[in-house]
Amino acid sequence: MTVWSVAVRTDGVPKTKVVIPSPYNILVDNAVNSFGLGNVEITIMGSLSLQPSTTIVLAVASTIQLAGSGRIIGVNNTQKITINGVTKYDGSLDLTKTGASTASSATGISPNGFAPASLLPVKFTSFTAVKNAGEVVLKWSTGSEISNDYFEVERSYNGSDWTSVSTIRGTGSSAMNAYYSYTDNNADGTTIYYRLKQVDINGTAAYSTVKTIRGGNALAAKIYSSEKMINIELNTEIKHTVVVTVMNTNGQVIEKRQFNAGYKISMNVNRQPAGMVIVNVADNNELNHTAKLML
Is the Cβ–Cβ distance between 38 and 59 less than 8 Å? Predict the structure, then answer.
């Protein structure tokens, strides 16, 4: 038996990744939340045991995967795991949770918080929000869909109160890539938040990650290109690890790198063909800025 520990990733992925290999048993209590877990990708092939009165709190883009003989061990309702405030594991309902399955913001509430990996209703492969003059263009794609009825595009000006601004029909059930878009012509706030509400044919709903658009004087970065270089000038010196993600116009990631210091970032993209790209700069804290560039 051992205890949960954490290490900083070095591959540029803006998530903490936790792997519990077989036959290890990891014992956790509420102190695990002091790591500031945020968005976490957890793969359990051994055992994760929750102490009494322990709730592991994970952010909206987190996933928990049980693989092989992996299991989560609990005995009562003081032992819980939540994603975006929704209980995915409850010790009194799930007890010893086994079986190849995944929990995410797209799955249900305990005791149905985990779904067989092949039965996840919608697998999001991208979601971007880009401000252009007085409008915001949202694009998202899925790798597969099962009984997907529709998406609701929701907008907020404070991150708490949400309004549905459009409904986009889903493909129903498909194993093929699907691409969607929506243009918000009423994007008149300095800071605007967007999320997608995915609704199944049976009425079950799940939410995407939240995208933030900052406009006017609130922009935290200037992004421009020159001679196959992407240049980013920050208003303040980097205080957190900054991840720069470059996507094509379909939202597919083509470059992703991590930076740790300075006011200016220069990123060589000479391997990429000429054309339009979308660049996102984020530090998993306050900075989250996206711009369109022509290479």
Answer: yes
pLDDT (tens digit, 9 = 90+) per residue, 19-40?
A: 898 889 999 998 888 877 778 8
Q: Is residue 208 packed enough to be buried (19+ CB in 10 Å), middle (13-18) or exposed (0-12)?
A: buried
Q: CB neighbours of 243 closer than 8 A, spacing ≥ 6?
A: 12, 13, 14, 256, 257, 258, 259, 281, 282, 283, 284
Which residues does 168 contact at the CB level (< 8 Å), separation at least 6?
A: 150, 151, 152, 153, 180, 182
Q: Name the nearest CA neighbour of 148 among 163, 166, 168, 164.
A: 168
CA 115 to chain centre: 18
pLDDT > 70? residue 5 = no
224-249: average pLDDT: 80
Bridge partner residues of 277 (DSSP): 293
Q: Is the pLDDT of residue 81 over 70?
A: yes
Place of tokens 């054309």: 275
Residue 287 and residue 253: Cα distance in Å, rounded?
A: 19
Query: In Å, what is the CA distance from 230 to each residue of 131, 267, 280?
Result: 18, 5, 11
Confidence of residue 13 (pLDDT cuts 50, 70, 90): very low
Among the residues of the chain, which ranges form H helices? Answer: 91-94
Element (H, E) at 288: strand 288-294
What are the two backbone dihedrals, phi and then psi, of residue 88, each rounded to the nearest 5 degrees? -95, -30
Domains of the chain as residue ranges with CATH: 2-118 (no CATH), 122-214 (2.60.40.10), 219-294 (2.60.40.3080)
The Cα 204–Cα 197 span in angstroms is 10
Separation CA 190–CA 294 (nearest Å)? 25
For a pLDDT cut of 70, what percent of the chain falls above it? Answer: 85
